[in-house]
């Protein structure tokens, strides 16, 4: 099966000028400008297969949103190739956009001063959705995303979480095979995030929708994506399975345990040795973090139960945030 998205040596450069400081610098900028070329995306290559849910992550300014904008046809690449659903996005944008849904976390595609349902009806006409399909999808989205109670509320009166759910429904009313999500859960509470994650799982499972997701919330990635692409300073640092990244790059393991009583706290120093650090979570809950190359989980647990009285104990993997942070800092994955 051919990839639904193919990106080869994709590049985007912006030409700007260096601003000098102070009043004299501002005057000098009026007459003499020192131009600088910024490589927002630098020879990025990847393919995405139909039905995949891929996490595309990076620090602020890494090039995530610029890539998404080129994939949706908003920006024209400086160089390289991008073919999405058989289209070159920036050349065939009008025909291409009928086949994709897009959600930008800080922008809405809904009309601000009219009721949500009226925006949906307008989008139905724009995309040429039949009445039967429109009703079926609207009923499904209302149930899964829990938006029925505010369909008749003006968009400007919705909370951020309510608006994001409505934006997701709007982006999928025409049943596109491709969905681009740029920070879809930014600023949302736990309940709203859970609604959105469950909805995305459902449309991927039932409709086979291909999803490319950018986010700073790595719990979104763990919940939704098996594959992850990490970009930094415009270049791809890692492209592979999330499980592979954890297995190959995870350096530490963690053991969380709950002490029986306060009297056990004084004994904690007996188990914090070379390669093992102890962190307090709350009054009776502690976390031991250890280098997996120096100590085994069995060895650490044995030390805990031999020296302390505990109520419960859990083994945890190193958080994905810590692994990704280490990749950003080192600039390498091996």
General description of the model:
- The protein is of the alpha/beta class.
- It has 2 domains: 50-77 and 88-247, P-loop containing nucleotide triphosphate hydrolases (Rossmann fold), CATH 3.40.50; 252-317, Alpha-Beta Plaits, CATH 3.30.70.
- It is 35% helix and 29% strand.
- A 6-stranded mixed β-sheet has the order 5-6-7-3-8-9, sandwiched between helices. Strands 11-12-10-13 form a 4-stranded antiparallel β-sheet, covered by helices on one side. The chain has a 3-stranded antiparallel β-sheet with strand order 2-1-4.
- Helix 6 (160-171) packs parallel to helix 7 (190-207).
- The chain is globular and about 70 Å long.
- It starts with a strand and ends with a helix.
Topology:
Layout: E1 5-18, H1 22-31, E2 34-48, E3 53-57, H2 64-71, E4 79-84, H3 93-96, E5 100-104, H4 116-127, H5 131-145, H6 160-171, E6 178-182, H7 190-207, E7 210-214, H8 218-224, E8 227-232, E9 235-241, H9 242-249, E10 252-259, E11 276-280, E12 285-291, H10 297-307, E13 310-317, H11 320-330
Parallel strand pairs: 3-7, 3-8, 5-6, 6-7
Antiparallel strand pairs: 1-2, 1-4, 8-9, 10-12, 10-13, 11-12
CATH class of the largest domain: Alpha Beta
**What is the level-2 CATH architecture name of the largest domain?**
3-Layer(aba) Sandwich
Overall morphology = globular
Number of helices: 11
Residue runs with pLDDT of under 50 for 5 or more positions: none
Average the pLDDT over all residues and give the rounded result.
Answer: 85
The secondary-structure element order is EHEEHEHEHHHEHEHEEHEEEHEH
Number of strands: 13
Fill in the CATH topology of the largest domain: Rossmann fold
Ends distance: 31 Å
User: Describe the biggest sheet?
Assistant: 6 strands, mixed
Spatially, the strands of the biggest sheet line up as 5-6-7-3-8-9
